[in-house]
Amino acid sequence: MALDTLDYSVLAALALAVLAYLTKGVFWGVGDDGTKVVSDSRDISEVVRDHNKNYVVFYGSQTGTAEDYAHKFAKELKAKYKLNIMVADLADYDFDTLNDLECVVSFFIATYGEGDFPDQSVPFEDHISNLSKGDLSNLKYTLFGLGNSTYEFYNGAAVKADNALKAASATIIGEFGKGDDGAGTLDEDYLAWKEATMDILKSSLNLTESDAKFEASLKITTLDPGEYEDGEVFLGEPDKSYLDKSTNLSLGPFDHAHPYLAPIAHSKELFNSKDRSCIHAEFDLSNTNLRYSTGDHLAVWPSNANEKVEKFLKIVNLWEDKEQVIEVKALDSTVNIPFPSPTTVETVFRHFKEISGPVSRQIVANLKQFAPNEKAQQQCDKLSKDKDLFAKEIHENKYDLSEVLSILSDGATWKLPLEFLIETISPLQPRYYSISSSSLSEKTTIHITAVVEADKFQDRLITGVTTNLLRNIEIDQNKESAKPHLTYDLKGPRNKFSPYKLPVHVRRSTFRLPTSPTAPVIMIGPGTGVAPFRGFVRDRVALAQQGKTFAKMVLLYGCRRSDEDFLYRDEWVEYAKTLGENFEMHSAFSREGAEKVYVQHKLYELKDEIMELIDAGAFIYVCGDAARMARDVNDTLCRIMSEKKGFSTEKAHEILKNFRTLNKYQEDVW
Ligand code: FAD
Known about the structure:
By secondary structure, the chain is of the alpha/beta class. It is about 35% helix and about 20% strand. The strands form five sheets. Strands 1, 2, 3, 4, 5 and 6 form a six-stranded parallel β-sheet that branches. The relative contact order is 0.09. Flavin-adenine dinucleotide binds near residues 399, 432, 455 and 466. Its EC number is 1.6.2.4.
């Protein structure tokens, strides 16, 4: 059998992936664009010793938030107690010598999926789970978990880590901290834990506290023309390969560190509404070896809107210098450089920093030392020390960083060291979308379905970064007369994002249809929660067209009104024609009748059929809002089981929990 070009590229990508795996990070980290500096050893105690470190902050991060908190913690600990701290990704080290460390370590561990460790930290999980009593008897650690209490296994990974470390006789210093993104208190949970933990560290390690002045870990040098070649300056290219003309950018592997610049071949507005918007976007994979499976997630890397970049650069007095080329170097080889360098000032804040979004109280505390006037200094002091005042004045008003800076200084501009801005402001992270296409019917296209975040609040519009970028693209691509809420540099660096390309990568998920065709399927997905189910149904349509048959599929969908925000309204009718009576769709409209009807109400209405399907071995899938819907659906399923089978509520909950373990009850919620 002859191999075609695609087969060769897949083989090449596989070979690269195997090489990368076998070398375990030793090669891939040493990019000379300096984005990631990795030590040549994976022996943690050797690296700590060689670099004279006396404290290690580890992170296990899925989306970058745990990494960000680990850096914030290390920065403050270093400034306060003059410790020589190393921040390390759990993925970059082996842990055989963990017990040989002569210093305290802090762990920041995110939970992903059903109480799982972040993908890259699974080897760490495996290592600590196989230890015996006494194996870590010298290890002293602090632990902060990042989780979401609306999920079944709240902070599950950090809980597992704590149990395994304790079982191996490690000693925790202070309390195991748990941050709750679901309750929206992650930042305040962290601050409360951090204050208590730093006090305990101070007394138990006998540390002397000094004025927590910012100390840079990076050195930024401005470059004059002549000190750089134009072609080597990063203007928003995701990594070095995008500057190198000889690199074939369509070859993977593509991941968090190396996204694919995917053309959006087609986009359209799905809502029929004056003030709400939902974008369907189709990413073309026909020129790449990037592939996906139905149920996976697409990570979309955004940039910041023109309006936000301008407002920010003006308040920090960098607008005039926005084209200045800068070089970023780490002051010590264990420090990662957060983006490719050399680059320009504007590029940093357009492509790599999260300048919109809520502001942390910690940033305001750190700003005090650079306040442009006494009033601003007092404001920083007052707001950063009073949690309730901060919540009332800043958080509840949904101000972003530019607005906070302006409020603190009464509009006066700030002169903040670039190192401070870069090390304090969180990195701009990709946003994830449940893929709404089927890898069986759309092998080389990924569809996503994204509701645009733009809420009127007082006299301002509170906007999301990525969804407004998608809307700007959709309006531009279809030459619509509608005005976008925000405008973006759609052409991207050196026009490379033109026409309509965005950096993306696929995150594998476990959200999959049952392999057995005889297992019935119950899908509950209101709003954009229907996205993966469109993929599931299209999968089944593709197979039905090949003559395959399946057990029943029931889809429960919900939206406000049938004529306003009913996603893919016309498509479902077509799917039903192919799938026949084995596809049933039930819709709940919350704003059409006198009473609000949601998916959980429909689910209860269908209780006889739902119970029959469960008895026949149905797989249950829930997608969408994690905060309320997923819990209400879970409770309704328990109620149905209790009523139909005479179980107690506890017993029904137990059965559903068991379904989860067996993968018969899966959630894709956010
Ligand atoms: P962001 O910039 O991330 O903003 C988030 C929210 O904060 C917005 O509501 C914004 O208005 C608000 N905000 C902005 N500034 C402030 C401020 N200063 N103070 C307070 N609030 C502020 N979404 C979908 O639409 N479809 C999907 O299929 C989908 N699938 C997902 C799958 C997974 C696994 C996950 C984790 C999430 C999924 N999401 C999905 C959500 C998606 O990832 C994004 O979170 C969402 O689109 C918003 O992204 P954004 O960049 O537009 O908003």
